[in-house]
Design goal:
GMP Synthetase, Chain A, domain 3; Rossmann fold; single chain; alpha/beta; about 425 residues; six-stranded mixed β-sheet; Spo0b-associated Gtp-binding Protein, Chain: A; 3 domains; 8 helices; five-stranded mixed β-sheet
């Protein structure tokens, strides 16, 4: 089974909660704070595993959650950080944020890694909040929530040579002749509906990977037929072997077929036009093929374009060896991997105590009689505050005042007793005394 697209859910581990604790030692009747910080939650990391070839495993497991950090401990000991969750993916996997369609990473090399969902940092224990005015605080933070998101994985087959051409021109037969691959072969269109890979032994100590890709039809660049499912794989091949049915057995014009396929590839990705290409005039064992080959060469010369043409018969293996030598020679002249552009790397982010100053903004809206406060900093602070202790509640209120939220509410006409909502939790507004 070949699976080249999957949608999965990933979540970094939540940070461990900080601890409220105090020293309890003999001869130390008034020990100070001793609550440690919580550990950081684990990251969800995608790692390229060279031996994988499909995304089939993601059809059966679609949720990946890293473990949360360990809670802080007494004697000012920090909780342990959680281990990262490693998710193995095949080379050629593109990771896309499902909400924004932003490309998170393009994973091509064995061992390459990217953090897809970062774990939350641990909450601070009460040791961190000790001040001369409050040497024994009963304040500790909850751990930060890990990042969660839905991502789409797209696999683009990575091969040295890609076989392209209309359906039933003999691509699968050619691959079966030059490699140990056994693709499905039949006398009907779209026998091949998923890519097949085969390792080609040239015979002189050289080898390369060849991919038999699903047949194209006119309109493929717009998604017609197997359209985009085919074209995404062509992008990853270092060179193209364009297979033509030179016998015109279906009353098709080989030259027009060649023009059509090239136009579809160019429309899908203009850079494919620059990809090195060899033309294979297949089915030369059929009498009509010789005449058609002459006509094809004349039309190609008239167009001003020059490509190497190899008359072969995949059935009789005539001309195949010469083609393999040329393909191997060609691969020595081009880069190991086609250039991949427009890739967004996941950057390391600096951790702030609350939020960067640019994120201190907030909005106040009204939902009937309830005033709703929204903002990155306030929501992050709310989630990290432990409202089970009075000191934590008072600290939360102090920070709101410093951010100017209290005054902003008064300016909107809020009075004592008015219902306020933050993060779906409602409480009453109380004037500071």
């Amino acid at each position: 089974m070949f699976v080249d697209k999957a949608k999965i859910y990933v979540k970094g581990g939540d940070g461990g909660d900080g601890l409220v604790a105090f020293r309890r030692e003999k001869y130390v009747p008034e020990g100070g704070p001793a609550g440690g910080d919580g550990g950081r939650g684990g990251n969800v990391i995608f790692r390229v595993e060279e031996g994988l070839r499909t995304l089939v495993d993601f059809r059966y497991q679609k949720h990946f959650k890293a473990d949360r950090g360990i809670k802080g401990r007494n004697k000012s000991m920090h909780g342990a950080n959680s281990d990262h969750m490693i998710v193995k993916v095949p080379p050629g996997t593109i990771v896309i944020d499902d909400d924004t369609n932003e490309v998170i990473a393009d994973l091509t090399r064995h061992g390459q890694e990217v953090i897809v969902a970062r774990g939350g940092r641990g909450g601070r224990g009460n040791t961190r909040f000790a001040t001369p005015n409050n040497p024994a605080p009963e304040i500790a933070e909850k751990g930060e929530e890990g990042v969660e998101r839905w991502v789409t994985l797209e696999l683009k087959v990575m091969a040295d040579i890609g076989l392209v051409g209309f359906p039933s021109v003999g691509k699968s037969t050619l691959l079966s002749v030059v490699s140990a691959a056994r693709p499905k072969i039949g006398a009907y269109h779209f026998t091949t509906i998923t890519p097949n890979l085969g390792v080609v032994d040239v015979g002189d100590g050289r080898s390369f990977v060849m991919a038999d890709l699903p047949g194209l039809i006119e309109g493929a660049s717009e998604g017609v037929g197997l359209g985009h499912d085919f074209l995404r794989h062509v992008e990853r091949t270092r060179a193209i072997i364009h297979v033509l049915d030179m016998s015109a057995s279906e009353e098709r014009d080989p030259y027009q077929d060649w023009i059509t396929i090239n136009e579809e590839m160019k429309t899908y990705n203009a850079k494919l036009e620059e990809r090195p290409q060899l033309i294979v005039a297949n089915k030369m064992d059929i009498p009509e093929a010789e005449e058609q080959l002459v006509i094809f060469k004349e039309k190609l010369a008239a167009s001003g374009k020059q490509y190497p043409i190899f008359p072969v018969s995949a059935v009789t293996k005539s001309g195949v060896q010469e083609l393999l030598y040329k393909a191997a020679d060609l691969l020595t002249t081009i880069p190991e991997m086609p250039l991949i552009e427009d890739i967004v790397e996941v950057e390391e982010r600096k951790v702030y105590r609350l939020a960067p100053k640019d994120d201190q903004s907030f909005t106040i809206s009204r939902d009937n009689d309830v005033f709703v406060i929204e903002g990155v900093a306030i929501e992050r602070l709310f989630k990290r505050t432990n409202f089970s202790t009075e000191e934590s509640v008072l600290r939360f209120a102090r920070i709101l005042r410093k951010m100017g939220i209290d005054q902003a509410l008064r300016d909107r006409g809020v009075e004592e007793g008015t219902t306020i909502r933050i993060c779906d939790v409602e409480f009453e507004f109380v004037e500071h005394r």
